[in-house]
Specification:
The chain is α+β, with helices and mostly antiparallel strands. The protein has two domains: 250 residues, BirA Bifunctional Protein, domain 2, CATH 3.30.930.10; 93 residues, Anticodon-binding domain (Rossmann fold), CATH 3.40.50.800. The protein is built from 16 helices and 16 strands. The chain starts with 15 loop residues before the first helix and ends with a helix. Bound molecules: zinc ion (ZN) (2 copies). The site of one zinc ion (ZN) has 7 residues, from helix 7.
Length: 412
């Protein structure tokens, strides 16, 4: 019998795994530029945390949670997104009291029991950034510009940031009323929208099911503070040279957003699909029992980011620089010592099996993508040398062990 992966789960193999590492590396570099530090949060939390934060009416909580009871009957869930865990950690660890900024990033796998479909997995990596304790629109612009910068460095084309303001507890209720009465007059709302209508009318605006074309829906009238905030946000995006467009239908699928929301789109994936999104969640930390802490953040899906650079995956594949080949069986120890010597000099190397034929070892060397084969026979060992063959130019010459490091490093 053989074992299979569970439906909706997959193995990530080279060179895709190398592409993921590359995206993580770029992200870490940008996070450092922006003063963000890493936080690592548990994969398992109490289910209740997600009801409170992600929101009871969201698709994630209603349909997509990996919820289970452990042996002692606790109601638990695998994290479907990063923000709730980071918010909980911020509160539990009194991070508002550290005197440091509240800027944290995470690189972590999330779990959602979505219907498996092409390119969608039930375990997937998200890279996210949260700035907790930051109320100013500079922080919104900083956060969004940082996100755009990551995709710019990945080579994403025609980056476009769509933005909207969802208002605050003082201007949103009026909008909600107007929206409910407008939506109630619409025919053909899908069944989940009819359910959402009273509880979360904003969500109806971004219904993915074909329904009525909601064109002349009422737009939000921002209160003075929200309007000032939004204008400043836009000005700072311009200062950051980030292209943005106002999209009044952009609401994001989570309950906790207030004021600023944004989504990043690129033409690199064909359809103008969002590759990342985020926004401001000023009420969340307090709602969860923490100190009043305004916050802004986003998350990107590593799978979509990897698709953007799919043509370049080969470039990211980690290959050894040198492949050791023994001309005969007796040269195994010598070749193995050479390999360990090169590694101690920070030159990556590999070998197959020194007891195999020379021909077979050379075949592996060619396949490995290494720049050099380092071949040793009886003569080479006697003289403390190695025959260094450039596997691309086919040039070959004998080199003293002492000169090996320098010659190889010069060619890399
Ligand atoms: Zn407001
Ligand atoms: Zn709908």
């Amino acid at each position: 019998m053989t074992y299979q992966t569970i439906r909706g789960f997959r193995d990530i193999l080279p060179p895709q795994s190398d592409a993921f590492s590359f995206i993580e590396k770029i992200s870490r570099e940008i996070f450092t530029l922006y003063g963000y530090r890493e936080i690592r949060i548990p994969a398992v939390e109490y289910f209740e945390l997600f009801i409170k934060s992600t929101g009871e009416t969201t698709d994630i909580v209603q349909k997509e949670m990996y919820r289970f009871k452990d042996a002692s009957g606790r109601d638990l869930a695998l994290r479907p997104e990063g923000t709730p865990g980071v918010a909980r950690a911020y509160i539990n660890n009194n991070l508002s009291q550290t005197g440091l900024n509240g800027k944290y990033f995470y690189i972590a796998d999330m779990f959602r029991a979505e219907r498996p479909q092409a390119g969608r997995y039930r375990q997937f990596e998200q890279i996210g950034a949260e700035n907790i304790g930051a109320s100013s629109p500079y922080s919104d612009a900083e956060s969004a510009a940082m996100l755009a910068e990551i995709f710019k460095r990945l080579g994403a084309e025609n980056l476009r940031l769509e933005i909207n303001s969802l208002g605050c507890p003082s201007c949103r209720p009026k909008y909600r009323e107007k929206l409910i009465s407008y939506l109630s007059s619409q025919k053909d709302l899908c069944s989940s929208c009819l359910q959402r209508l009273e509880k979360n009318p904003l969500r109806v605006l971004d219904c993915k099911i074909d329904g009525p074309k909601l064109t002349d829906f009422p737009s939000i009238e921002l209160c003075g503070d929200c309007a000032v905030h939004h204008e400043k946000f836009k000005k700072c995006l311009s200062l950051s040279k980030v292209d943005f467009f106002e999209n009044p239908k952009l609401v994001r699928g989570l309950d906790y957003y207030q004021r600023t929301v944004f989504e990043l789109k690129t033409s690199s994936l064909g359809a103008q699909d969002a590759v990342a999104g985020g926004g401001r969640y000023d009420g969340l930390i307090k709602d969860m029992g923490g100190p009043a802490s305004p916050a802004v953040g986003w998350a990107l899906g590593a799978d979509r980011a990897a698709m953007i650079i799919e043509k370049r995956w080969g470039e990211f594949e980690k290959k050894s620089n040198v492949f050791l080949v023994s001309a005969d069986k007796e040269r195994g120890d010598y070749c193995f010592s050479l390999a360990q010597f090169l590694r101690s000099e920070n030159i990556s190397c590999d070998f197959s099996d020194f007891s195999l034929s020379f021909k077979s070892q050379m075949r592996s060397a060619d396949k490995s993508g290494a720049l050099f084969a380092a071949i040793a026979g009886e003569d080479e060992e006697k003289n403390g040398e190695v025959s260094l063959k450039n596997l691309f130019s086919k040039e070959q010459k004998k080199v003293k062990k002492e000169e090996l490091t320098e010659i190889i490093k010069r060619s890399l």
